[in-house]
Amino acid sequence: MDSITLAFNTYFSFLTIACLLSVNLQSKDLRINLLRFLMIYTFLSEVLAVIFIMLFQNNIIINNIWLLIVPALFIFIVSSEINCLKKPVKGSLSIIYVGFAILNLLFFEGLHTFNAYTSHFGVLVVLMLVFFKFKEYFDDPSSDIVRDPLFYFLIALFFFYIGGFLVNIAINYLIEINMNIAVQLLVIRNIVNCITYSLFSLALIIDYFNRKKLSLTSAT
Questions:
Q1: Angstrom distance (rounded) from CA 24 to CA 156
Q2: Do the beta carbons of residue 121 and residue 70 sit within 8 Å?
Q3: Which of 122, 185, 192, 217 could form a disulfide with 71 if both were Cys (CB 3.0 to 4.6 A apart)?
């Protein structure tokens, strides 16, 4: 088994665990339930992407649909938790992203070409929101970030978008120069994905134990 196959199988194992946790660890918290949906949807998308590769040798359409849905929900979750943003701004950011993604999908890069413009726009918006929320955490010393599932969700997004974005840029550049190195960089991207979905899973687990502790406290 080559390193790329091993890296993908490892990533898929982490994603499968995250999906199983998402199915079993139910919550009353909207942001956690959205995270559960995102991981289940991502798992199903990856399975479908593999099937498309086997049948059609191309899974770009699956990636483009993922780009339309998942970053929009990332934006919604993070923006809804930023206190300094006004409600109209919180409600409009995801809509603006989806509108941009649909226009790009229909009129510019198209359904059968990877929508790089949409990807880059999502990176910029999500990272901007993540930094805003980190600032709020650091400006409030009383916040218990260790027990806050959102904190681990933000760290996951940071790794996913910083690491994945830089690797994707390098891959696109190296494809024209050295395909072997570009392919090997896929290993790094899968490692970043493993870290991301491990942190997403940790957020679910922390939410679960927070709820268990709260129920035990209320029972006594």
A1: 21
A2: no
A3: 122
Q: Tokens 């027990």 identify what position?
A: 147
- How do residues 71-112 score in pLDDT, each as one tens digit? 999 999 999 999 888 888 888 999 999 999 999 999 998 888
Read off the pTM: 0.90
Phi, psi of 14, rounded to the nearest 5 degrees:
-60, -40
Average pLDDT over residues 168-176: 66
Contact 98, 152 (CB under 8 A): no
Give residues with Cβ within 8 angstroms of 181, minimum separation 6: 174
- Cα separation, 186 vs 33, in Å, equals 30
Where exactly are the structural domains of the chain? 3-209
For 104-178, where are the alpha helices, taking DSSP H only?
116-139, 149-158, 164-174
Q: Which two tokens stand for residue 66?
A: 């993922």
Token representation of residue 98: 């989806």
Q: What is the DSSP string of 48-115?
A: HHHHHHHHHS--HHHHHHHHHHHHHHHHHHHHTT-TTS-HHHHHHHHHHHHHHHHHIIIIIS-TTS--
Distance of alpha carbon 158 from alpha carbon 59, whole angstroms: 26
Helices 116-139 and 87-103, packing angle to 10 deg = 160
Q: Where are the beta strands (DSSP E) in the chain?
A: none
